[in-house]
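The records we work with from here on pair a chain with its fold. A complete example follows; check for yourself that the lines match position by position.
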Amino acid sequence: MSGCTLQFSRNSPLRTTLVDEATGHPKYQIDTPRKIARSVTRIRRFDSPTQPPLHQDDDVDSDSGDDITDKGKKKSESKEDKHNREEADEADGGAELLETSDGIARIYWKWFSPDRIVFQGKITTRSEFLPKCGKMSGSYMFTGPDGIEYRWAMGAMGMNYPKLVTTDEKKTVIAEFHRAHYFMKRRKARLEVQPAGMHMLDYIVLTFVFAEDKRRERERRANSSGGGGGP
């Protein structure tokens, strides 16, 4: 089995279409409502190669402002927002199983309680499904369907990280994120997955969305406080 490279239609881990670079077919759709308090990120997989993406933008879209409206003002609650809020409330109710017919996974972002992840019909907290590697670390780890532990390693700012590696002594690279390049040779962001990771592509996409969003969040805080570095 060969690996694959998933190209981002937009430079945001929360709102993008992941397209198979080799075939040009969309593989995953990631949607998050634009609002002050992000409620739910939905991840959908396109099983049919002939199915078009829900939306595919060619614009250069930064991840800044992911949590606010265009003018920074909270909009009145729409039907979609109300639906998302009710779903988040349902997840907080402690249900063990939740239907995910609208996609392979959902991430419930929380302000004052642990983030929740819905995957394969089960609800878990982020710390259970994707714990941090050390209290001060920006890296996250998870156990794959093969029982092997993997870690999203976060490098220094300005580098191509995150990179998914095994936690054993070999530190085998399973997947690697490459940032978008807008100068000289223009190239969109992409997630390169090695053959060893193709059996758990859903796991990789789900965990990457969370890990990369948190990395960008830390980077924005560092930049705003004068810590330097760039996206």
